[in-house]
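Notes continue from the previous slide.

Worked example: a multi-chain complex. Inputs as given:
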Amino acid sequence: MKIKEFQKMIGDIYLARDAARGPDKSFLWLLEEVGELTRAYRRGELEPLGSEMADVIAWLASVANLLNIDLEAELLRKYPKMCLLCQSVPCRCPAR
Amino acid sequence: MKIKEFQKMIGDIYLARDAARGPDKSFLWLLEEVGELTRAYRRGELEPLGSEMADVIAWLASVANLLNIDLEAELLRKYPKMCLLCQSVPCRCPAR
């Protein structure tokens, strides 16, 4: 799934609730999820870690939607080095 | 860009350094980036917010790579509701 599609999906599901809650309280939710992720990591509970990471990304997407931030565009602006053909850094395309 | 491609790209660029640093110190870097994001949000500095969100996602990908967590798979497991045809929740495909 593309990052842009995921952010749009989170908007489709949650934007109305996120907007009613507002950005401040939504940001606090994001930080709560970061706390849950940290607790699971600190305790060595590897099984829920992936799920907690998913929650952090989902809340980032919620806050980004409220602030009109395009996460995929921001990631591509910050990490533009990937070869679009072979999708590797550095490029591993066979010599042409 | 797909979430899976982004995670792989972060591995291509940073995995050697992340592995040398280890998961504990990499997790602390993640939390530092969460702190920078929170500071920018709290101060109302909207311009760097997208860039700070990108950093948080990149460090999540670094930690996930060290722990063999597939972020895209975790996100799809947690948020499986998107229609794969129209990429909306709920499905908005024209009636067929």
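Summary box: The two ends of chain A are 30 Å apart (CA to CA). DSSP finds four helices and no strands in chain A.
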